[in-house]
Amino acid sequence: MRALIVDDSRAMRKIIGGILRREGYEILEAQNGEEALKILKDPETGRVDLATIDWNMPVMNGLELVVNIRAEKELRNITLMMVTTESEHSQIVRALAAGAHEYLIKPFTPEAVNEKLLLLGLGT
Where is the Response regulatory domain positioned along the sequence (predicted)? Predict the structure, then answer.
């Protein structure tokens, strides 16, 4: 299983990456949505099962990334999980309506990530 972690915080990418590695994932990283789209569209690196996406990033934010991924036929099978500090109900609804499968609010525990993976059928 492969996961792409999209977050402008290197520390957050490392934290999420550590949790997902323990679940058996190979990890790819991107600092913003634009970089993530390049990775996903690259036939060499692009096949991923899960993308964790922060909302607030420069260049292309997480919501824009979700919309762009869902617009690409060949990327629609990727499971998308927003992992963000945005906790207002309206933001959660917007992300899910745009095509995110799950929503995890920062700060979170490793157990919370694992619970979401199980809900998505991607955990052990």
Answer: 2-121
User: How distant, in Å, are the alpha carbons of 23, 30, 59, 61 from that of 67?
Assistant: 27, 17, 15, 10
Total domains, the chain: 1
Q: Does residue 89 contact residue 108 with C-beta atoms inside 8 Å?
A: no
Exposure of 106 in the CB half-sphere (CA atoms within 13 A): 18
How far apart, in Å, are the Cα atoms of 97 and each of 10, 16, 93?
28, 24, 6
Q: Tell me the residue range of the domain where 49 lies.
A: 2-120
Q: For residue 38, how far is the Cα from the chain centroid?
A: 15
Give CA–CA dist 116/120, Å, rounded.
Answer: 6
Q: What is the CATH number of the domain that holds 113?
A: 3.40.50.2300
pLDDT tens profile 69-80: 999 999 989 999
pTM: 0.94
Read off the amino acid at residue 108. F
Calpha distance 88→41 (Å, rounded): 31
